Amino acid sequence: MHRKTISDKISLEGIGIHTGRVAKITFLPAHKPLGIRFIKQKKSSKPVIISANLENVKTTVRGTSIGEGAEIIHTVEHILSACAGLGIDDLDIEINSNEPPIMDGSSVEFTKALLKAAIKEKKEQTKFFLNLDNHFEFTEGKSHYKVKPHHGLRFKLKFANNHKLIGSQTIEFNHDSASYLKEIAPARTFGFKHELDYLLKNGLALGGSLNNAIIIDDERILTSSGSLRFDNEFARHKLLDLMGDLKLTGFDFKNIFIDAEYTGHKTNVNFAKLLKSKAVKTI
Ligand SMILES: [Zn+2]
User: Fold this and answer.
1) Which among 279, 241, 231 is positioned nearest to 262, based on CA atoms?
2) Which of 6, 75, 96, 231 could form a cystine bridge with 117, CB 3.0-4.6 A?
3) Each residue of 131-163: pLDDT tens digit?
4) 251 C-alpha vs ligand 1 centroid, how far in Å?
């Protein structure tokens, strides 16, 4: 298989969930095999290029942030998830803010935009995947990840919360691009009302609203449309995030079964580092 990018450029605009600021991103075809890169535009100096890789992760609090020097881009995981879902290897993303637009809180708008820009194989560049010779497990706090060789790329993810309206949810997913668009990309970010109140008081989640997040209070699950998109939308969104964080390895995966529970960005990133160190490159 060959490395993939897009054929045309395409832009999206919207507010960032933490900053509340309007941001514009433009997805650009990337001819060189340099991975996913954010290109932060500066008013009075040259743009700063921040590669989406594990070495550049700066924080994993309320989302995954990457940076280069003093320049940081927050909440990159949903765009990276769209790239993982579609198998895009190389993409330049111009951005005029320190956080991409959150859109509807899922990755579906990013996924659709990338598809609209037409995914293209770069015939002269071979694509390498990561796979495994052996199984292993990783535990950090409550988070647990089990990985083993498998036929195809398969995920299982469990999310549970003792809120009476959530309980325990599981998603099982065999990866291909069309299924990602339908089954995973539309799953939205979610948060608890008491957390949101706290974040707002502390100057975070300034753009957070029902337009871009599912909000759970003591008695209700609130959404812009009035209902969930899937019964297990929370587990699906957790898988969307995991796929985005794993894209920081710089690779897509092949013939692996990843079975994870109680995941978060911090543990996803630590798991990604371990997985990358244990994996073997294959075509
Ligand atoms: Zn997310």
Assistant:
1) 241
2) 6
3) 999 999 999 999 999 999 999 999 999 999 999
4) 20
Would residue 144 show up in a list of annotated catalytic residues for this protein? no
Of 211, 190, 208, the C-alpha closest to 199 is 208
The full length of the chain comes to 283
Q: What are the extents of the domains in the chain?
A: 2-126, 129-282
Residue 123 CA, ligand 1 centroid: distance in Å:
33
CATH of 2-126, one of 1.10.10.10, 1.10.760.10, 1.10.3720.10, 3.30.230.20: 3.30.230.20
Please tell me whether residue 267 adopts helix, strand or coil conformation.
helix
CB 147 within 8 A of CB 46: no
Rounded Cα distance between 270 and 25, Å, is: 28
Tokens of 143: 């988070």
Confidence band for 124, pLDDT divided at 50, 70 and 90 = very high
Return the pLDDT at 203.
82
Q: pTM to 2 decimals?
A: 0.97
Residue 225 CA to residue 222 CA, distance in Å, equals 9
2-126 and 129-282, same CATH topology: no
CATH class of the domain at 129-282: alpha beta
Which one, of 265, 206, 186, 150, lies nearest residue 18 by Cα? 206
Evaluate if residue 53 carries a pLDDT over 90.
yes
pLDDT one-digit tens code per residue, 56-107: 999 998 899 999 999 999 999 999 999 999 999 999 999 999 999 999 999 9
The Cα 50–Cα 66 span in angstroms is: 7
> What six digits make up the tokens of 212?
């871009």
- Residue 241 CA to ligand 1 center (angstroms) comes to 5
Q: How far is ligand 1, taken at its centre, from the CA of residue 240, in Å?
A: 7
Q: How far apart are CA 156 and CA 177, in angstroms?
A: 17
